[in-house]
């Protein structure tokens, strides 16, 4: 451990049940807050994004200056990151007309690249060793990407016009489906002709259905 790391303690909390409970609550607060400010309060997505980005910069400044995990500043930063991440996706979708498929793909790639660079630089992705400023920057860019990706993917999964697999799609697929035997008969005219074309003699002799189908087809055709 270098001198800088030695002066730091881990900057993020342990991942326990309480962590995930607070994480879910903070995410909900963040996304609800962003929607309220942009829509109900009338600030619009642009001003909301600028205001929240400024607050996030201040919170990150405080967070980076701490030498160990400080709950109130850490979770304040998480809430603000969730708001900014949500707003980034909303601006791409609502203002720039970027498809949710595209934004989901972009944030997925960015998240993957962030992990790759993080690992190649630090040789570790452990959140139990966020003990240097560089590792903390990687951590927070990862969190920002996950919020932006979560918003894009979540909207994509729930939007009415998204071309996802639904119950209606499955029902139509079942109605149009055919058994293997029906497909063989449609293609070759009879089950026996299909066997004679698609499988070898050894396979035909071992097939428990070959003799019966050959006899039945010769009787009726």
Biggest beta-sheet profile: none
Structural class: mainly alpha
Query: Percent helix among the residues?
Result: over 70%
The value of Rg in angstroms is 29 Å
Write the layout of secondary structure elements.
Elements: H1 3-6, H2 17-40, H3 44-65, H4 71-95, H5 100-122, H6 133-158, H7 167-176, H8 180-188, H9 191-198, H10 201-206, H11 210-220
Helix pairs in contact: 2-3, 2-4, 3-4, 4-6, 5-6, 8-9
Detailed description of the structure:
This protein is mainly α and 221 residues long. The protein is 76% helix and 0% strand. α2 (17-40) runs antiparallel to α3 and α3 (44-65) packs antiparallel against α4. Mean pLDDT is 77; it is low at 1-8.
């Amino acid at each position: 451990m270098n001198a800088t790391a030695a002066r730091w303690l881990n900057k993020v909390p342990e991942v326990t049940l309480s962590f995930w409970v607070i994480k879910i609550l903070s995410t909900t607060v963040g996304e609800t807050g962003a929607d309220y400010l942009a829509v109900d309060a009338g600030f619009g997505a642009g001003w909301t994004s600028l205001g929240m980005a400024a607050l996030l910069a201040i919170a990150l400044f405080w967070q980076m200056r701490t030498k160990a995990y400080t709950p109130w500043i850490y979770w304040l930063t998480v809430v603000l990151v969730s708001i900014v991440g949500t707003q980034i996706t909303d601006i791409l979708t609502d203002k720039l007309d970027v498809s949710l498929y595209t934004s989901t793909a972009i944030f997925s790639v960015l998240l993957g690249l962030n992990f790759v660079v993080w690992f190649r630089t630090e040789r570790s992705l452990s959140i139990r060793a966020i003990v240097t400023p560089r590792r903390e920057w990687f951590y927070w860019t990862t969190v920002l990407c996950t919020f932006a990706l979560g918003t894009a993917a979540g909207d994509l999964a729930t939007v009415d016009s998204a071309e996802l697999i639904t119950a209606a799609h499955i029902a139509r697929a079942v109605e149009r489906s055919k058994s293997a035997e029906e497909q063989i008969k449609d293609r070759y005219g009879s089950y026996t002709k299909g066997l004679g074309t698609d499988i070898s003699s050894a396979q035909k002799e071992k097939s428990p259905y070959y003799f019966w189908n050959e006899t039945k087809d010769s009787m009726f055709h």
